[in-house]
């Protein structure tokens, strides 16, 4: 490759006085290996050079400091480290040249080893690992390619290199598209994202290598890295003797113990594993310890008992099986037993064995996730899940995925690790669905269906652009060839991922699932549950739906019900709850006052007109205008619209719409007369719209989670139709806001690792940049009559701006707590009145009429009832 040739020339030139680089002799995931002559010592050496894209995100000083710790390892089965350094920006290290093959080459040629030879090699490798472990070094990337043969004896190479790369890269390897560890030999804790694996991780990798030497294949194989890592996390291993019956029982037992999913279940050290390989009496897994001496008679007696039990078992199995009974029972929520906001957010394990929900117990504000096992009266807290939403289970029920802010995270429900899968999601709607192929299907930008790897480290793969409207929820179908998608208008669509097409199935739907009985089960807006035949091959819905039961609590775009694949159902019984958010007035001291807006639905993105007499909002996927002085409303758009903002003259409203393709900027007269006009278009989907006071500039930003997402762009009205990049870095910039005099651009960036408010001059944005918020901040909004900037950090805060040279930010002042109002990390969900003395915020809309009695109901073995209903 051209990049390797370029690196070779740079390396040859930079090291000309120390090494004569002759040619490339190998290349791997992290480095390229060159044959070289050591000029000082007159010997052949191997020079390994890290890939340039990896070295670009690393500091050479720390890399070289970490790698020196491995240079002190001295052992006959460890390949020593001669030299290391930096050459013309390339990080390299030097090792002796080993003329023989490596284990990977031997396996590719011979397939399987004799048992005695495989055990001998594993024993020597175990000795090398033990020496390193006693000196505090974990290999982290043991694999056949790193086991070389020198005069017939194995030597382990690259000790601690993975540690050095990880430490120097400071967790930024995802920027390069590279990853540490080889999937076939990676331990479950590494696969789960553990950045500091212990010695037990090397024990697991050695077990994988020995397994392959004896059977010809690693213990876990698959068509992709994601599939392999998914199997590793499941922990199911085919017994070696099923693949090669001549493997001794103690060797098989040692391998199976080394490959246990939990580190605590493996050998405590590699010498223990080496000892088990030599101990003919060692057993692990099926079979238990060998029966010796006086225990042999007991073992024979136990065998007879086991045979009698087997006969009884076969008799029971062959007897006619009656369907399991349907069981209905109430579930008490945590805490005081009251069903409140937490009950809207729960998920069922695929086998119905547990439920994850959110609650506020133990937190001063916000919520966190809890897991409740079937039959348990209490839940247990899942640490590190504060403010999580849209939670789903993995197909094996061992993991959950959820969104926090703009990040997608997965966590083990048994506390075995947490992995950040994706940063920069659109937080408005997520709609997660974990597929059996190891990907997570979700929406990005309210219209784009994407697949995300369950192991992270890769950008989302766009699979379908959902043109008819916004997405509220996604449910992947078995076979990974289709998905159910719920639009923001309540229309249920099916997407054929094979043909890249979609069509509507039903309307007025709140949730839907595919049941293994071959039916689509769905909840209507009125809380009724129905079913209809559904063909997985054609993705066609039967013509007749039949009712099942009623009383599920529903709201705008959601239903309080979950259906697992084993036939378990959990739902909240009730109605009249969850009417969405309504606009209210709040003064600077936090005193709330009702607003006579005339708006009755779930409201998003409030924007006050320049004179404060009108309010533009998004409701049910379109823009509405409320006349605040009269309490009347009218619908402004009829083909979809969101993120409204007012033109400076107050006569028209600018909004986002995908009516002509991806999200573009449109404008329409506020009184509803005339047609909407296209203002600005882009090859990337846009969000938000901000006018300069003189109407000469229109500012927007691209959606997060997509390629090139999170950039702030501007169009000069009357000038070039192409956008001008304002803030377009490698980080995520969102929520642009322009001061009332048009001189300063505020926005949110995650460049510091957290979301913070920054200010730049406008339009000369590259002159300087000033951080504003302390620690964190979101949703910046400028006052309309002075240089005062508001933003949110749980509380609503304000800072005054001094325009003397240099630009100065005043003291941050907390105005009032704002945690109970609708919020967003990317688009402001409030606005400030023209006089700056009060704000429009979105408050949860209370239910009308008497508060209904709510109960949470669990149904077990519900498919029996469904099938009985079908036979009637």
Write structural notes for this entry.
- The chain is of the alpha+beta class and 872 residues long.
- The chain folds into three domains: 2-278, Transferase(Phosphotransferase) domain 1 (Transferase(Phosphotransferase), domain 1, Orthogonal Bundle), CATH 1.10.510; 327-578 and 854-871, 7 Propeller (Methylamine Dehydrogenase, Chain H), CATH 2.130.10; 595-844, Neuraminidase.
- It has 14 helices and 59 strands.
- A hairpin with a 4-residue loop joins strand 34 (581-587) and strand 35.
- Helix 3 (60-71) packs antiparallel against helix 6 (161-169) and helix 5 packs antiparallel against helix 8 (199-215).
- It is globular.
- The chain starts with a helix and ends with a helix.
Give the structure's gist in a few sentences.
The chain is α+β, with helices and mostly antiparallel strands and 872 residues long.
Write the layout of secondary structure elements.
Blueprint: H1 2-14, E1 19-27, E2 31-38, E3 43-50, H2 52-55, H3 60-71, E4 83-87, E5 90-96, H4 103-110, H5 115-134, E6 147-150, E7 153-156, H6 161-169, H7 188-191, H8 199-215, H9 225-234, H10 240-243, H11 249-258, H12 270-278, H13 295-318, E8 327-331, E9 346-348, E10 354-359, E11 368-373, E12 380-381, E13 389-393, E14 399-404, E15 407-412, E16 418-423, E17 433-434, E18 439-444, E19 448-453, E20 461-465, E21 471-476, E22 482-487, E23 492-496, E24 501-506, E25 509-515, E26 519-524, E27 529-535, E28 540-541, E29 546-549, E30 554-555, E31 558-559, E32 561-563, E33 569-573, E34 581-587, E35 592-594, E36 603-608, E37 614-619, E38 622-627, E39 632-635, E40 642-646, E41 652-657, E42 664-669, E43 677-680, E44 686-691, E45 697-702, E46 712-716, E47 724-727, E48 733-738, E49 744-749, E50 756-761, E51 770-771, E52 778-782, E53 788-793, E54 795-802, E55 808-809, E56 813-817, E57 830-832, E58 838-844, E59 855-860, H14 862-871
Antiparallel strand pairs: 1-2, 2-3, 3-5, 4-5, 6-7, 8-59, 9-10, 10-11, 11-12, 13-14, 14-15, 15-16, 17-18, 18-19, 19-20, 21-22, 22-23, 23-24, 25-26, 26-27, 27-28, 27-29, 30-31, 32-33, 33-59, 34-35, 34-58, 36-37, 37-38, 38-39, 40-41, 41-42, 42-43, 44-45, 45-46, 46-47, 48-49, 49-50, 50-51, 52-53, ...
């Amino acid at each position: 490759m051209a990049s390797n040739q370029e690196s070779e020339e740079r390396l040859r030139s930079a090291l000309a006085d120390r090494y004569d680089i002759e040619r490339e002799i190998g290349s791997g995931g992290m480095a390229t290996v060159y044959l070289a002559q050591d000029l000082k010592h007159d010997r052949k050496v191997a020079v390994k050079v890290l890939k340039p894209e990896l070295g670009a995100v690393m500091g050479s000083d720390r890399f070289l400091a970490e790698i020196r710790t491995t240079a002190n390892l001295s052992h006959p089965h460890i390949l020593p480290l001669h030299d290391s350094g930096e050459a013309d920006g390339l990080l390299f290290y030097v090792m002796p040249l080993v003329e023989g093959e490596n284990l990977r080459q031997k396996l590719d040629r011979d397939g399987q080893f004799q048992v005695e030879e495989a055990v001998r090699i594993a024993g020597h490798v175990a000795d090398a690992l033990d020496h390193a472990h006693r000196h505090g070094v974990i290999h982290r990337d043991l694999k056949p390619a790193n086991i070389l043969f020198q005069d017939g004896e194995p030597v382990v190479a690259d000790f601690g290199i993975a540690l050095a790369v990880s430490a120097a890269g400071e967790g930024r390897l995802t920027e390069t598209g590279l990853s540490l560890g080889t999937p076939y030999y990676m331990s479950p804790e590494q696969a789960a994202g553990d950045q500091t694996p212990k010695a037990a991780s090397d024990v697991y990798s050695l077990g994988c290598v020995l397994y392959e030497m004896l059977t010809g294949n690693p213990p876990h194989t698959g068509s992709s890295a994601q599939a392999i890592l998914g199997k590793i996390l499941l922990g199911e291993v085919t017994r070696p003797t099923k693949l090669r019956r001549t493997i001794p029982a103690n060797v098989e037992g040692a391998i199976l113990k080394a490959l246990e999913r939990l580190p605590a279940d493996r050998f405590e050290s590699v010498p223990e594993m080496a000892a088990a390989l030599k101990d003919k009496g060692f057993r692990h897994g099926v079979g238990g310890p060998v029966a010796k001496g006086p225990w042999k008679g007991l073992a024979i007696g136990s065998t007879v008992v086991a045979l009698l039990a087997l006969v009884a078992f076969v008799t029971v199995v062959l007897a006619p099986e009656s369907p399991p009974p349907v069981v209905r029972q109430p579930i008490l929520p945590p805490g005081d037993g009251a069903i409140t906001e937490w009950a809207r957010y729960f998920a069922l394990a695929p086998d119905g064995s547990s439920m994850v929900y959110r609650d506020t117990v133990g937190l001063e504000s916000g919520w966190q996730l809890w897991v409740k096992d079937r039959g348990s009266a209490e839940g247990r807290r899942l640490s590190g899940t504060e403010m999580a939403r849209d939670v789903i289970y993995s197909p094996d029920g061992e993991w959950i995925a959820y969104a926090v802010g703009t990040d997608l995270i997965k966590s083990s429900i048994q506390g075995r690790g947490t992995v950040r899968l994706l940063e920069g999601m659109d937080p408005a709607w997520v709609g997660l669905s974990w597929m059996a192929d190891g990907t997570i299907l979700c929406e990005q930008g309210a219209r784009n269906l994407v697949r995300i790897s369950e192991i992270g480290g890769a950008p989302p793969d766009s699979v379908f652009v959902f043109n008819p409207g916004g997405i509220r929820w996604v449910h992947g179908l078995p076979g990974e060839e289709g998905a159910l998608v719920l639009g923001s208008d309540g229309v249920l669509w099916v997407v054929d991922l094979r043909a890249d097409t979609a069509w509507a199935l039903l309307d007025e739907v709140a949730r839907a699932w595919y049941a293994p009985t071959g039916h689509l089960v769905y909840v209507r807006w009125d809380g009724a549950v129905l079913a209809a035949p559904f063909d997985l091959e054609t993705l066609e819905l039967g013509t007749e739906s039949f009712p099942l039961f009623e009383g599920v609590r529903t709201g705008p775009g959601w239903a309080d019900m979950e259906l697992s694949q084993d036939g378990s159902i959990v739902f909240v019984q009730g109605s009249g709850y969850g009417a969405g958010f309504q606009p209210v007035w709040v003064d600077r001291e936090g005193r709330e006052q009702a607003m006579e807006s005339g708006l009755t639905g779930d409201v998003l993105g409030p924007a006050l007109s320049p004179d404060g007499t009108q309010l533009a909002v998004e409701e049910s996927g379109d823009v509405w205008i409320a006349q605040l002085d009269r309490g009347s409303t009218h619908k402004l758009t009829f083909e979809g619209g969101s993120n409204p903002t007012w033109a400076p003259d107050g006569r028209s409203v600018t909004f986002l719409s995908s009516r002509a393709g991806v999200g573009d900027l449109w404008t329409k007269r506020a009184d509803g007369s005339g047609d909407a006009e296209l203002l600005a278009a882009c090859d990337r989907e846009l969000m938000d719209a901000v006018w300069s006071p003189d109407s000469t500039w229109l500012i927007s930003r691209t959606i997060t989670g997509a390629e090139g997402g999170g950039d702030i762009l501007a169009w000069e009205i009357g000038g070039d139709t192409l956008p001008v990049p304002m803030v377009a870095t490698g980080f995520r910039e969102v929520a642009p806001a322009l001061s009332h005099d048009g001189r300063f651009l505020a926005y949110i960036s995650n460049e510091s690792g957290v979301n913070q408010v920054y200010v730049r001059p406008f339009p000369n944005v590259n002159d300087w940049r000033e951080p504003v918020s302390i620690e964190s901040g979101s949703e910046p909004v400028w006052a309309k009559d002075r240089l005062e900037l508001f933003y949110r950090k749980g509380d609503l805060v304000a800072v005054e701006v001094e325009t003397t040279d240099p630009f100065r930010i005043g003291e941050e002042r907390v105005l009032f707590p704002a945690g109970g109002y609708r919020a967003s990390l990317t688009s402001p969900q409030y606005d400030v009145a023209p006089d700056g003395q009060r704000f429009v915020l979105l408050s949860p809309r209370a239910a009308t009429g008497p508060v209904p009695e709510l109960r949470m109901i669990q149904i077990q073995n519900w498919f029996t009832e469904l099938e009985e209903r079908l036979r009637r």
